[in-house]
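Retro notes - structure team

What went well: the batch runner handled both jobs without manual restarts.
What didn't: labels got mixed up in the shared folder, which is why I'm recording both outputs here explicitly, each with its sequence directly above its tokens.

Job 1
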Amino acid sequence: MELLPRSPGEFGSARYWDRFFRQRGQRPFEWYGAFPDLCPVLHKYVRPRDKVLVVGCGNSELSEQMYDMGMCEDIVNIDISDAVIRQMQERSGSTRPKMSYLLMDMLQMDFPDAHFQVVLDKGTLDALLTDEEEPTIAKVDQMFAEISRVLQVGGRYLCVSLAQAHVLKKAVEHFSQEGWVVRIHQVASSEEKQQFVLPVFVYVMTKFRKIPGSAPQILEICPEEQDKPMRMENTERLVAAVKDRQHYALLCSQINKTPCREQVSLDLCDKESGKPRYTLHVVDSPSVKPSRDNHFAIFIIPQGRETEWLFGTEEGRRQLAASAGFGRLLTVALHREQHYEGMGGIQAELSGKVMELAPPGLPARQQVPFLSVGGDIGVRTVRHCDTSPLSGEYVVEDVKGDDSFYFRRLIFLRNRNVVQSEARLLAPTPLQGQKKRRKDKKKPSLAEPPGAIDKSYLCCEHHKAMVAGLCLLGGPDALPGELAVLVVGLGGGSLPLFVHDYFSQARVAVVEIDPSMLEVATHWFGFSQDDRMQVHVSDGLDYVAKLAAEAQYDTVMFDVDSKDLTVGMSCPPPAFVEKPFLQKVKSILKPEGVFVLNLVCRDARLKESVLATLRDVFPLLYARRIEGEVNEILFCQPSPEGRRDPAELGARAQALEGALRRPGRPWDSSYVLADMLQAVHIL
């Protein structure tokens, strides 16, 4: 039996609805949810003494249930279908004497002005506004005009809708421009089998007298999980907020039915500020054999560790899920702008929401475990935040690592999942004569002054590889002695500081385009200048171009990020690897020198182009991939005569490390230069 119209326009036809209800018979047709779902919202806006008009009533039981539940009795139902009006008069006429059903077109109603306190519309606007053609818009404008006419000032137009973008935008713009208060409620569905995947919304338009001039619009949304409305700045933000909830419902519907082939990511935002509070990744492990207790788990990533490979990459999260042994693992990253009340508070806050992302086949009333590293949520303290004209917003924060050490990090908020610079903190040293803390006293926290920067420790693996590349310098038997080093890109300063401190005869020139970064490095990362370390605040492109075209540097190091996030290469900026500029870099290198480049490129074609250009300029090119990261360190030499086999590189690395490990000078025992060069290969 065909109940759907041949074209969307038939939704406005009385003939179509007569045929529809004759074919359907006495069975109620409930557009967009049943009374139990709508009742909590309707109770807020319909009072027992209100006179209520239901437009496009159909044969829905909504009016009857409102009457029977005592919500209100003075209800007038209208519809353009004679068949359904006669059907409903027969069904309710004798049992509900104060409720009436009238054959009437809502575009031309016979009621006097200001006759009702409430106009209720369940799906009628959606059925009428099937497109944005001029005749359709004219009908909708007439519908809104009639609703406005028959409503009293202070009355409410309650429109139950699926909130398609064009429908929502039309309704919100029309009534807000008329000076009405607009509030959107998301309806919480209690049915196990919903008729629609997308959520149902109720537009609440409260009539006010239009004030001449530009009165502020009041636009609000009430998500299903809270009663307190959230104020929206404009129509676009309100429509976007509804769209976000529709996407979330669609996502939940999809992942509740089938396992995720790809990892799904979404943000849960703070109710007050609207800023992201949690970032969730849904990770399914098809290899895990399901049992009653391993369907689903939640993993809270400790604060400050969301950038680590295990938590911050797809492959890392995949390994985490497999090792945890759950069919679906939901990882949760915490945001630095937010405050959290420990693991218990997070569990209480998330327990209802995460169950909406449960996998198919999860047993009823199954307890879902919350997991973390060491059972806590980690420690993060923001030490400094500011805005640079060149780098944008940034923060300096201290975080606890996976051992007893604390680390200081520089994060550019335009790319908040990338650690720009990192340094390990030394444990605070008790003052002489200071008594030890009693065991029952509170342990020191990051709220106390931290220790100094550990300048002997290179946190970044790519920095370790860049320093190890200095083994390529010098003749067959020589090791670096007096060095002239140019570093482009300061960051926190750990790379030039290490070269300065451990190569005692090195003279280091650093070029940094952003003066704010020099302040950050000096104030927060223990960086300082002296007669062997000088910083030049300049564009690296200009600085290299102005140098005399004569060999003067033993090594040039590029560790400079790109400000343009639209390019598939985040380090260095594309201009730094163009052939004319690379030829200038080659011209300032000594014949046995080495150009060291930190390359971070996710675009395979762009990367191959960069490598081809480097090979054109430098006859000898080594590469060293950084495991678990996108970084690749390239060692470029201006002469092919400096080529060395792996055995020679290993021997030179051991000799150099021995020279750097001097008595009384701290050395990170995990930093083995020969290991850093094992994976080096010639391109």
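Job 2
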Amino acid sequence: VRFRSCDGNKKIHFGSSEPEDFRVGEDGVVYAERSFQLSAEPTEFVVSAQDKETQQEWQMRVKLTPEPAFTGASEKDQRKIEEIIFPWQQYKHSSPLKRQKRDWVIPPINLPENSKGPFPQELVRIRSDRDKSLSLRYSVTGPGADQPPTGIFIINPISGQLSVTKPLDREQIASFHLRAHAVDVNGNQVENPIDIVINVIDMNDNRPEFLHQVWNGTVPEGSKPGTYVMTVTAIDADDPNAQNGMLRYRIVSQAPSSPSPNMFTINNETGDIITVAAGLDREKVQQYTLIIQATDMEGNPTYGLSNTATAVIAVTDVNDNPPEFTAMTFYGEVPENRVDVIVANLTVTDKDQPHTPAWNAMYRMTGGDPTGRFTILTDPNSNDGLVTVVKPIDFETNRMFVLTVAAENQVPLAKGIQHPPQSTATVSITVIDVNESPYFVPNPKLVRQEEGLMAGSMLTTFTAQDPDRYMQQTSLRYSKLSDPANWLKIDPVNGQITTTAVLDRESIYVQNNMYNATFLASDNGIPPMSGTGTLQIYLLDINDNAPQVHPKEATTCETVQPNAINITAVDPDIDPNAGPFAFELPDTPASIKRNWTIVRISGDHAQLSLRIRFLEAGIYDVPIVITDSGNPHASSTSLLKVKVCQCDINGDCTDVDRIVGAGLGTGAIIAILLCIIILLILVLMFVVWMKRRDKERQAKQLLIDPEDDVRDNILKYDEEGGGEEDQ
């Protein structure tokens, strides 16, 4: 049915006088509300159109007649087909311009989907009022006619009868927009095309389908009624604006049914699942399985189609159970002086879900360990508390510890839980006495002693102490562990150290005046233990070394200028037994002072030069007397080998080779002899090699002589044992 107001702007609401049988949609489509049999007589009812603003109402009587039974051949005779006439047009002054007199609004054609035919099924007849004077041809264009999907609608070109050729499916195409044309036999357009809209009326031919067959959701245990859990969604391919596509949800079953068979409810329109009862307890029921049903036709159980899905709701854990110790007192023991040792395992029980913050336990000590010698670690797998020693414990000081410990979860307890948030217990730890190593006091021990202490002298006493006061042991025994210069010995009973050699500060084993020796103290416990101690001897210097000249050799020119030689005094002693030094030449032989003179230029340095104008080239031994500043003084006479040579204007020697040859030393002669011997050995080896090579060449020539049969000849060699060639 259609209603058209004069101004075209009214908002109309349609109503039916028989609402239990017929319903009129907002688009004017009339639906049957129930299934019933029509009598042979026409059924009448009234359709009202009411203005929503002014409440003005218009009424129209509808007469509903059952379709008579027919066959395809007699359908035209038994049923009147609606006609659609092209809007007429008026021509003025034979002008080719046309003026449309009026324009029709052709109502859509409503065609139910899934019709069983027979096909082709006539819909309407399209006609032009000019067909009385002209021979016209009719056609339709658009999707469903000459465009994909083609061939659904056909038209008789002579009569204009529009028909459908197959059942329609609203879920594929909800409406078709066709255009009807009228032309003469020459193909000239005689009418403007008219638009025809064919609406496919929805039938309830699709069941609801859930987006997932299994839905997973979670809800915390202890949730209050009304807590949102999850949303399930189903879709229906039918028209969502009609009852065929309007879905309603409901919960069919709940498993398990504890503590109540109705722990959840669902919003029948949105699919939201919420809790409706209290008592969710993960420790009792960890998971609920709901069967959800979606039904179309707004949930009508008689006419609606339905489908089901499964909703799995896991009850998540909250911290509603604190950890509880399995015993009031735990016991452990630890040997003294041991660290990183687990001395006790603290076990707890927690009903919450394992390996979650509500189950993981944290341990802390609340008393009994003021010095922080213990810590408690948590085993991540078993949740046990591992009491561990982190600082050494001395049995002689503490023989037992009594610790107070507490356990609580990583997260606080949920609100409203009546249990205490933590559990407490006592840990009794016994310390075991073990044999400990002796230790020297002090360590290291420093002794200051002048060098030169004679062998057999008592130096000091170096003793150790045994920390095991409660063990019955004999006295300690001492021995020497390290003595680089082998200067010392220790009495094994009383630890008295005496010298076995003279202490020398200038020894290579003394570094920065300090000599280090290591000694060992051992007990007779089980097992035996020992400790080491270091004796540091700081040696004080005495003037026990005379200074020496450096360098031992020098070169100068025959003439006075330039002929100065710089020399240095070297003394192993240190201040005040070293420099400044005094330099002088001896009185004998007399030629020394006659030819040479020496002058001190600083505390450690002096300058030797010729006293005479010319001294013949050669090598001279010049004795020099050097005296240090010690008390008493120490002096020595050092020989300086001076090579006197002819020099150029720059002071460089020009006859060094002659001087060196004249003064060839023993070392040089030995070196020359060694070179000669090596050269002779090389020559001898070369001769032997050449002789052997000649013999091998002769043997090869004999073996390959073509005139001799090698198999019939015996080759005789002068030397025993053939070489590698005799194969």
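One thing worth noting from job 2: The helical segments are 75-78, 590-595, 656-662, 666-703.
We'll revisit the folder naming next retro.
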